[in-house]
Amino acid sequence: MININGTILEDSEAYLSVDNRGFSYGDAVFETIKVNSKPLFWEVHYFRLMASMRILRMEIPMHFTPEFLESQIMDLVDPQSDKAKSYRIKLTVFRATGGYYTPTSNSVKFIITLSPLDSDIYNSHTDSCEIELFKDYFIAPNLLSTLKTNNKAINVVGSIFAKENNYDNCLLLNTNKNIIEALNGNVFLVKDNVIKTPPLADGCLKGIIRDQLIDMISKSDNYDLIETSISPFELQKADEIFITNVIQGIKPVTKFRKKTYTTEVAKKFQNKLNIKLRLG
Q: Edge-to-edge strand order for the sheet containing 2-4?
C-alpha cells in the first residue's frame, strides 16, 4: 500500500508522472522513519523535514502540521498493524510537476511508502561489519550535503563498490579528504573515553540517531564527545567505530583492513537508546 497525497492505493495502482520533479531532477526531500505504534522521534523528523523544505525553497502548505503528516503515516500503517511489529516508512515530499531546472511552481506533494521490519526495538548487532573507504568521489562540505534529498548518486555507487568487494559498508569522504559518514548513516569513533563524530560543517547528514546519541553522550559521566573533522588515519587508532541510523540504531564496525574493533560502547548506548524509547 502507498499513500499518494492523501490517497491510499495498492502498489499496482500507484504511479507517478514521468515529469515528476523528484524523478527528473532529484527535486525532493525525504525522511526515513521507524514506526511502532507511532512514529519514533517524530517531532525531530518533522522539524528536519520542514527545515529541508525551506532550504530548497519549497512552499510549506498550511495543513502540513505535525498532526496532519503523522495521521497520513498512520492511515497507511494502521490497516497493516497485524502484519508486523514495526515498519520502515519513507515520507517523500517533492515539488509539483512543471518547468525544467527552474520550476513553474514551488508547491509540493507527498508520497508515503512502507515496508515491514523484524523488530520493534533496536537489536544488539552480533554480526560482523567490515568497512572500507570509498574514494572514487567526494562530498562537498556544504549545507545541501546535510539534507536527505533524492540526490544520492555517491551513496548508490559506493554501495555497489561495497557489494562488489564484499564490504558491509563504506565510509564517505568530503573534498577535504575527511571522513564524514557511512553509506547509510553517521559515524562515531571511540578512543579511550573520547567519542568523536564529524561536524555538520564537514557535510555529514544531520541524522536523527546522531542527535540522540550526542545528547546521551553529553549527559554521560564516562565519555567526552567531540564534534571534529576526522582523518582516515584515525581509523587505525580507534578502539571502536559505530554507524547510526534510525532503522538499525547503533551498528558497530568490527573490521577495517587489518584492524579489528571492540563493540562494548555501541552495545551500551544501544541499550540506552532502547530504554529511552520504552520510556517514551
A: 7-9, 2-4, 108-117, 86-95, 28-35
Average pLDDT over all residues of the chain: 96
Is residue 34 within 8 Å of residue 90, measured between CB atoms? no
Percentages of the chain per state (helix, strand, coil), in multiples of 5: 30, 30, 35
Boundary residue ending a domain (117, 143, 176): 117
Q: Which of 235, 240, 234, 233 is nearest to 217 (CA)?
A: 240
Grid cell locating 179: 571522513
What pTM was estimated for this model as a whole?
0.94
Distances (CA, A) of 192 to 17, 85, 146, 181, 223: 53, 37, 28, 21, 9
Q: Are residues 108 and 179 located together in one domain of the fold?
A: no
In a domain, 122, yes or no: no
Same domain flag for 138 and 225:
yes
The domain containing residue 142 runs over which residues? Answer: 130-279
pLDDT tens-place string over residues 19-74: 999 999 999 999 999 999 899 999 999 999 999 999 999 999 999 999 999 999 99
Burial of residue 2, with CB atoms counted within 10 A of its CB: 0-12 exposed, 13-18 middle, 19 or more buried: middle
Among residues 27, 85, 87, the alpha carbon closest in space to that of 59 is found at 27
Check if the beta carbon of residue 124 is closer than 8 Å to that of residue 116.
no
Domain co-membership, 67 together with 178 = no
Confidence bin at 125 (pLDDT 50/70/90): confident
Q: Are residues 173 and 99 in the same domain?
A: no
For residue 243, which of 234, 233, 235, 252 has the smallest C-alpha distance?
Answer: 252
Give the whole-angstrom CA distance, residue 217 versus residue 128: 24
